[in-house]
Design a protein that fits this description.
Layout (H helix, E strand, L loop, with lengths): L1 H18 L4 H22 L34
């Protein structure tokens, strides 16, 4: 019964908080904070299945990106 009273008080204060006059800057700030909090919260609670990998990983891998040229191709000096 005591928990129900606490929940009602929290709900009332939350409603009062939302019903007050907001300036446009405050609205943007609150919305931005909520979005960023949601993103950070999602990153922290999401499961990591195959480790952390940063990159494309589309299978289009080329071992030799210069098309068969020598490794020191870029450094040849022509005198």
């Amino acid at each position: 019964m005591r928990a129900l009273i606490v929940i009602k008080k929290i709900g009332k204060s939350f409603t009062e908080f939302l019903c007050r006059d907001w300036t446009p800057a405050e609205k943007i700030l609150v919305a931005t904070c909520c979005v960023l909090y949601g993103m950070i919260h999602g990153f922290l609670i999401s499961p990591i299945k195959k480790g952390v990998s940063i990159g494309c990983n589309n299978g289009n891998n080329s071992d030799n990106c210069y098309g068969g040229l020598d490794d020191d191709f870029m450094f040849d000096d022509e005198d």
